[in-house]
């Protein structure tokens, strides 16, 4: 297929573009480099540097079989301080993309949604049928985009899939996480091991969890990419399918830091800091629906494998 990958110079988008290209698809990446890197666009993918909001209509005139839509603003704290940046940058941009897809008859869409649409969960693990009550603007914009996609699938026959990622981590060869403003736990902890930070802050140790620190479900970025390939193949016209993607196993912040200590051999100093506003205590996915419908099974579910790959990527970057 000829595919447009929005945000393909970013972390998840670059890994997925690489996998799509390896699978034989023709990949065109559009990215405005607001948080991405031109050298992260995989070899063999055509790169167009542009703001999707401005470029979507013109781009789709050349004809595509599908779109994988990763481009977004995704910093939770920033979304609370600057909501317009998120409603404009995420929702308005996506509406323009959807309109351009309708106009130019591009019907296949895979969209990066998030566990943040659920907010504080009532029960763990979280199925797709759980109530959606986002606790931050980022999650609210992702939920709004999910709703818009449902409308387009119903009204215009789009074959759409939203993948609600839990905590994405790890790397795929030369493609990995290198956000300039890094907020994610594993890369931050590895920066301590690299000597780029003095210590890691643990955001609260009084949560109702096994060791008092927050529990998250870490999913390897290459397993996530595999789910995108399957979602693309299995999409049905007129349907918008929504899948949670995680491993179904939770790890506490302290367990993650301990795993990073084992993998890196570095003591990684840590200190307890105040809880981060809006953080749920525990987020663990039920991915049974994705496993059944997409015949998808994570292949790199072990936390130490995920950390080893992130560590190899981080070390290669400074070598
Ligand atoms: N990383 C995670 O843990 C995680 C979890 C859940 C959901 N997601 C979602 O997955 C997607 C990718 O996340 P990521 O971690 O790779 O983020 P990222 O910031 O590394 O990648 C996003 C890319 O989109 C580009 N972009 C942003 N706005 C654009 C625009 N208007 N036009 C063109 N390009 C634009 C950025 O330059 C960047 O390269 C996002 O939609 C994010 O919300 C990520
Ligand atoms: O320096 C840090 C960074 C994080 N944490 C903790 O580590 C856990 C993981 O935090 P991340 O920032 O790595 O990830 P989040 O769970 O906050 O967010 C991720 O999951 C969300 C779903 O709720 C969204 O999808 C979001 O895009 C994605 O990054 C949280 O408990 C957080 O409080 C720390 O203790 N110290």
From TrEMBL:
SUPFAM superfamilies recorded: NAD(P)-binding Rossmann-fold domains
Keyword NAD listed: yes
Cofactor field: NAD(+)
The keyword Isomerase is assigned to this record: yes
CDD domains the UniProt entry points to: UDP_G4E_1_SDR_e (cd05247)
The reaction(s) this protein catalyses: UDP-alpha-D-glucose = UDP-alpha-D-galactose
EC number from the UniProt entry: 5.1.3.2
Stretches assigned to the NAD-dependent epimerase/dehydratase domain: 4-246
Top-level EC class as recorded in UniProt: isomerase
Cross-referenced InterPro entries: Epimerase_deHydtase, NAD(P)-bd_dom_sf, UDP_G4E
Top-level taxon: Bacteria
An annotated Gene Ontology molecular function: UDP-glucose 4-epimerase activity
UniProtKB keywords: Carbohydrate metabolism, Isomerase, NAD
Pathway of action: Carbohydrate metabolism; galactose metabolism
Transmembrane residue ranges: none
Gene Ontology biological process: galactose catabolic process via UDP-galactose, Leloir pathway
Family, similarity comment: Belongs to the NAD(P)-dependent epimerase/dehydratase family.
Self-association and partners: Homodimer.
PANTHER family: UDP-ARABINOSE 4-EPIMERASE 1 (PTHR43725:SF53), UDP-GLUCOSE 4-EPIMERASE (PTHR43725)
Protein name: UDP-glucose 4-epimerase
UniProt organism field: Halopolyspora algeriensis
């Amino acid at each position: 297929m000829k595919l447009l990958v929005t945000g393909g110079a970013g972390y998840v988008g670059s890994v997925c573009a690489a996998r799509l290209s390896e699978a034989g698809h023709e990949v065109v990446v559009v990215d405005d480099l607001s948080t991405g890197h031109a050298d992260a666009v995989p070899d063999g993918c055509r790169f167009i540097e542009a703001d999707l909001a401005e470029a979507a209509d013109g781009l789709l005139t050349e004809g595509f079989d599908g779109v994988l839509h990763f481009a977004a603003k995704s910093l939770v704290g920033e979304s609370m301080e600057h909501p317009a940046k998120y409603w404009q940058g995420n929702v308005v941009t996506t509406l323009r993309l959807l309109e351009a897809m309708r106009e130019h008859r591009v019907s296949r869409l895979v969209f990066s949604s998030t566990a943040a649409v659920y907010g504080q969960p009532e029960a763990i693990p979280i199925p797709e049928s759980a109530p959606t009550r986002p606790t931050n603007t980022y999650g609210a914009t992702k939920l709004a985009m999910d709703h818009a996609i449902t409308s387009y699938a119903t009204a215009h026959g789009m074959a759409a899939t939203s993948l609600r990622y839990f905590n994405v981590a790890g790397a795929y060869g030369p493609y990995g996480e290198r956000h300039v403003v890094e907020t994610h736990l594993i890369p931050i902890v590895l920066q301590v091991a690299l000597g780029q930070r003095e210590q890691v802050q643990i955001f609260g140790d009084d949560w109702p969890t096994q060791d008092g620190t927050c529990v998250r479900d870490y999913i390897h970025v290459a397993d996530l990419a595999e789910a995108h390939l399957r979602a693309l193949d299995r999409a049905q016209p007129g349907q918008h399918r929504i899948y949670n993607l995680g491993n179904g196993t939770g790890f506490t912040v302290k367990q993650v830091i301990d795993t990073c200590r084992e993998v890196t051999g570095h003591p990684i100093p840590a200190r307890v800091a105040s809880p981060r506003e809006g953080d749920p205590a525990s987020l663990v996915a039920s991915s049974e629906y994705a496993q059944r419908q997409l015949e998808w099974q994570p292949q790199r579910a072990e936390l130490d494998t995920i950390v080893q790959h992130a560590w190899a990527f981080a070390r290669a970057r400074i070598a």
